[in-house]
Amino acid sequence: MEQPSVPPLSRALTQDAINAYADAAGDHNPIHVDETFARATPFGGTIAHGMLVLAYVSETMTRAFGDAWARTGRLKVRFKAPARPGDTLTVTAEPKGRAVEDSPGREENGQARWEYAVTCANAAGEALITGTASVEAA
């Protein structure tokens, strides 16, 4: 079976989206929600919560794999740079091939998984998140 392709996902990041995430997560750190405070930091302005940006990566995989992603999806990522309001973020997932998962509970049946190199980049092409996503192969 050929490894499925994953269409890219683009999202405009707004301060309103960051504020809504802060409310939902209960994380009102001023680096995320207080422009005056954030301007005085090395970031020079507010930045998105890392988990908000990571949610766009998960949304990308959910669109491609649906319930299989919810049940069997795994992410291993590194945060490289902050996401800023006003930017457009694009998530890509490039096929890496098939790998045998060796986590506990999987050794017995050697369940194969599709692996993808994932990147979330800003409009300038700067990688904000890089890593690997995997999901059980059909």
Describe the structure.
- A five-stranded antiparallel sheet has the order 1-3-4-5-2.
- 30% of the residues lie in helices and 33% in strands.
What is the terminal-to-terminal distance? 8 Å
The residue fraction in helices comes out at 25-40%
Number of helices: 5
- CA radius of gyration: 17 Å
Q: Taking all residues together, what is the mean pLDDT?
A: 91
SSE order, as H and E?
EHHHHHEEEE
Low-pLDDT runs of 5+ residues are 103-108
Structural class: alpha+beta
Keywords:
about 30% helix; elongated
Layout of helices and strands:
Layout: E1 6-12, H1 15-25, H2 30-33, H3 35-39, H4 50-65, H5 67-72, E2 74-79, E3 88-100, E4 112-121, E5 127-136
Antiparallel strand pairs: 1-3, 2-5, 3-4, 4-5
